[in-house]
Model the fold of this input.
Amino acid sequence: MEKDLTRRKFIETVGAAVAIGTAANTVATAQEQKPQADKIRIIGIACSPRKGKTTAASLQVCLNAAAQVDPQIEVELIELAGMKIDGSLAAGLPLEPGQKDDFPELIPKLSDPKVAGIIIGTPVYFGNMTSLCKAFLDRCMVFRQNNFTLANKVAGVLAVGCPPE
Done:
């Protein structure tokens, strides 16, 4: 192992390996389903409340590595920062009057038949995912309730943590 291994280099190395494995599995799955498959998509979901920071950058490294595996792979990074996603709707609780909900904007992207893989990235807060990530995952229950539109999709998780100082 390199003596001067930085956090960014570690993320690039490990993230690229995860993305390549995910992409290879995604391509193989897509080819099994459709031998002459069109382009397939891998979506990265950055669940950090801070837009454009380490989690998004780490996911972008993974997505770039996945895109280099095969020319038929398209990638997209979606940042949830600034979005209002209420996890309590998954439990059947209604929104407060006037409360905004951005999750419906994500449904067409996630349910697109060309999406073959999803990588969810989250900062680690006190040993756990962000509340935004948890709310997003809770709301994904809608896919299970509606004909399993996430079935046969490859998924990966990228946890981004800071080393102790």
